[in-house]
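dumping this here before i forget
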Amino acid sequence: MNKKESRLRRGRQARAKIAVLKATRLSVHRTNQHIYANIIGPDARVLASSSTLQADVREALGGKSGGNVAAAQVVGKRIAEKALEAGITEVAFDRSGFRYHGRVKALAEAAREAGLKF
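structure:
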């Protein structure tokens, strides 16, 4: 089993537990250049999304790279704002098997500071 397969297995286990709880989840995916966040309802519908590919996020970053902690903080703040507008205050954090440090941690902390409860 290689590194990617291990991450995907961890992600499946976490999603299975969240599905049993029937909770709305904040799903995070990261690549070397970008970070993506989605609020997904118990019925598997995307209720809100944010990523470093969006024009308003790129503008907030000043045209810099989307693959750093500052970009993750901006995305975390934006996803929390969108979730609160949609009436979602509490979510389960789905880190998709990624370790909780660096950009994933920065996104989560920014979302918490903006008013989202995990």
